Amino acid sequence: MTKERRKRTRVPVSFELNILLRGEKIKVQTNNISMTGVNFISPQTFKAGEKCTIDLSLNKEVHLSIEAKILRSKNNETIASFLVMDEETFYHLKRLLQFNAVDSDQIDKELGEPAFT
Predict the structure, then answer these.
(1) Contact in structure between 35 and 97 (CB atoms under 8 Å)
(2) What is the pLDDT of residues 83-112, one digit of tens each?
(3) Assuming Cys at both sites, which of 15, 54, 87, 107 could form a disulfide with 66, CB separation 3.0 to 4.6 Å?
């Protein structure tokens, strides 16, 4: 049995977002999201290591844009790791996770710990 290495809560959410890659906009459906990445379903497979932009509109006023890297992609399921986001995006992502998490306080606790060791 392998030890769980993830340090961030994954929140199961299902919404559409766009992946911007090689000048193309690809609509995908999320499975779950954390402060460090997203798992999504897509009609196509992506190449590990490719850099992309995660584009998510929460409403007419709030738009998140996150630079990311594809970690793995198989059978239409893809994992992308977040690389860069601005402060406002960080705030809205954190609030999105807290709103949908079973234990919203856990999100704040995790942010006090290193994500990677």
Answers:
(1) yes
(2) 999 999 999 999 999 888 877 767 767 766
(3) 54
Q: How far apart are CA 109 and CA 2, in angstroms?
A: 24
Q: How far is Cα 25 from Cα 28, in angstroms, rounded to an integer?
A: 10
Cα separation, 61 vs 41, in Å, equals 26
pTM for the predicted model, two decimal places: 0.84
Confidence of residue 10 (pLDDT cuts 50, 70, 90): confident
CB 11 within 8 A of CB 34: yes
Domains of the chain: 11-111 (2.40.10.220)
